[in-house]
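Justification of computing resources. Each target in the renewal requires a structure prediction run like the one illustrated here; the chain below, 131 residues long, is used simply to show the kind of job we budget for.
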Amino acid sequence: MLKPVKIQVRFADCDMMGHVNNAVYLSYFEQARLFYFEQLVGKEWDYQKQGTLLVKNEVVYLKPVFLHDSPEISIHLIEIGEKSFTFGYKVSVNGEIRTTGASKLVCFDFRTNSSVKVFPEFIEAFNKLDQ
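Resulting structure tokens:
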């Protein structure tokens, strides 16, 4: 299991109500994905050859996150298909879940401009995630 990603809430992330704007959570999810991918497959991964395309996002807002909160995002594997996989997210502040979400990604070879089967390295790496 990997440690959750710590997010620093920026002033620009917040709306007039003083909480993180709904659209910003997708950026937080992306930041968490990049952190986790780096931990799982390394910094030298060739995303041009063995890349991913984001095809779907879902966000469930349970409670707001505010400017001075210190949210952490954990990622878990929801599903692996033939060419795609789905990550789930939990955004927590002091152990309390504030937001959940999911992203479906398709494995893609940008050199051939085509979707491909989930990379064996991903399947092996995803075993390090909670199910």
